[in-house]
């Protein structure tokens, strides 16, 4: 943590801004009180009309597509047909409730935030924009929400359902449920829930003080150093409110961990079904606690790993020594200045869907390459004078990263595409 230069002047600027902040807050609340009900009415009435008008068509077409689908096996198809009335009956209720909540959130916060954005550095005639911004634009935004929802219900939904009745390739098997595996899967799930729920909840409660004090420490450091949420003067009061309400965030995290523990316990049954082994399902029950503990440690910057055991719960999983060996090899490759395996070229095989095509790539390698490429190209552009120190300062201090955050990555990707095209490669040469 570094205290910035002229900290006293910036602190006085913040204190002197407080009266303007409260005036802007009152103005934003008044605009939200006037515009909010209008936006809520537009979204709720529009979405409800779409849901009611297309509900019968959705009901009939969903049943028709599921019944005609070649992608579902007999057992799974019968199960889906028996369970479909429940989500189809709940869809109008959930759609209306979601529209109400979304309309309230958008109709209230959009005018409020637009009021504070109107006093930004690049805004001219701030007094006029404080009253105008977030009024008519929020109403237009509500209409756009209804339009997008209409496109989804009228076009996208039917397109998704049409994919179910398409012919599947000869080498692809339809999805189905093997009834003989269900008893073991249910047994493991019944064991996993009462084991994982109390243990994961206990871990979350045990780590909650760390989250509380480390969060306060980080927020206070950002406040003193004018970083993160405290970078802009307008955001400082909201960020200060975040410091006060941080204990509620910690409580919410514990509640979320408690709820997610049920799904982790139930997922052990899916592991037992997929691997056709009760032992591997029971192993996941133990590993789930270790995975959760390790995730929390990484989130709170605590020690790496977990003190809980993590047995193998997949047949094709490599053991810890093997993972360590692989990591050591990668580390040696980096120290020797060489690229690791599969990092020099990413081959995109012909795939039936985008999802399958993306699975051929290694996201971590792609992100690592992009960051490294941006660094190298950034140094080149800085040397050639196309980027100067002023651009870097604006990005770090003012958040204006249009050149470094958009143009530089786009330039790096363009160079990659040109190099791949010149090399006549079937994939991306990175």
Automatic annotation (TrEMBL):
Keyword Transmembrane helix among UniProt keywords: yes
Keywords: Membrane, Transmembrane, Transmembrane helix
Metal-binding found in the keyword field: no
Protein name: Uncharacterized protein
Organism: Prunus persica
Membrane-spanning residues: 12-34, 40-62, 74-94, 100-119, 182-206, 238-266, 278-296
PANTHER family registered for this protein in UniProt: EXPRESSED PROTEIN (PTHR31133:SF2), MEMBRANE PROTEIN (PTHR31133)
InterPro entries named in the record: At3g27390-like (IPR040229)
């Amino acid at each position: 943590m570094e205290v910035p230069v002229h900290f006293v002047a910036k602190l006085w600027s913040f204190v002197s801004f407080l009266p303007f902040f409260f005036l802007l807050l009152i103005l934003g609340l008044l605009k939200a009180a006037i515009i909010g009900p209008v936006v809520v009415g537009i979204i709720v009435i529009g979405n409800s009309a779409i849901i009611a008008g297309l509900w019968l068509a959705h009901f009939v077409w969903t049943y028709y597509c599921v019944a005609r689908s070649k992608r579902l096996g007999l057992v799974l198809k019968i199960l889906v047909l028996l369970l479909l009335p429940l989500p189809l009956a709940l869809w109008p209720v959930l759609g209306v409730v979601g529209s109400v909540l979304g309309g309230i959130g958008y109709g209230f916060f959009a005018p409020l935030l637009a009021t504070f954005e109107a006093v930004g550095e690049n805004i001219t005639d701030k007094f006029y924009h404080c009253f105008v911004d977030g009024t008519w634009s929020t109403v237009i935004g509500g209409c756009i929400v209804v339009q997008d929802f209409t496109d989804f219900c009228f076009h996208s939904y039917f397109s998704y359902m049409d994919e179910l009745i398409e012919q599947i390739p000869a080498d692809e098997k339809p999805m189905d449920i093997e009834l003989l595996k269900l008893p073991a899967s249910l047994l493991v799930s019944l064991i996993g829930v009462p084991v994982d729920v109390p243990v994961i909840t206990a871990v979350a409660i045990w780590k909650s003080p760390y989250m509380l004090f480390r969060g306060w420490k980080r927020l206070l450091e950002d406040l003193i150093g004018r970083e993160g949420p405290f970078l802009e003067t307008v955001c400082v009061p909201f960020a200060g409110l975040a410091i006060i309400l941080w204990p509620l965030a910690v409580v919410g995290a514990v509640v979320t961990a408690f709820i997610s523990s049920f799904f982790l316990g139930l997922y052990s049954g899916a592991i037992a079904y997929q691997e056709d082994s009760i032992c591997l399902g029971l192993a996941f029950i133990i590993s789930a606690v270790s995975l959760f503990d390790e995730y929390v440690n990484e989130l709170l910057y605590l020690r790496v790993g977990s003190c809980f055991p993590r047995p193998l719960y997949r047949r094709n999983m490599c053991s810890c020594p093997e993972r360590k060996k692989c990591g050591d090899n990668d580390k040696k490759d980096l120290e020797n200045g060489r690229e690791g395996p599969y990092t020099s070229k990413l081959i995109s095989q012909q795939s039936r869907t985008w999802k399958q095509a993306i699975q051929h790539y290694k996201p971590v390698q792609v992100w690592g390459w992009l960051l490294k490429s941006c660094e190298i190209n950034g140094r080149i552009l800085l040397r050639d004078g196309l980027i100067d120190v002023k651009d870097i300062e604006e990005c770090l201090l003012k958040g204006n990263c249009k050149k470094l955050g958009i143009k530089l990555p786009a330039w790096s990707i363009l160079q990659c595409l040109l190099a791949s095209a010149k090399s006549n490669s079937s994939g991306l040469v990175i």
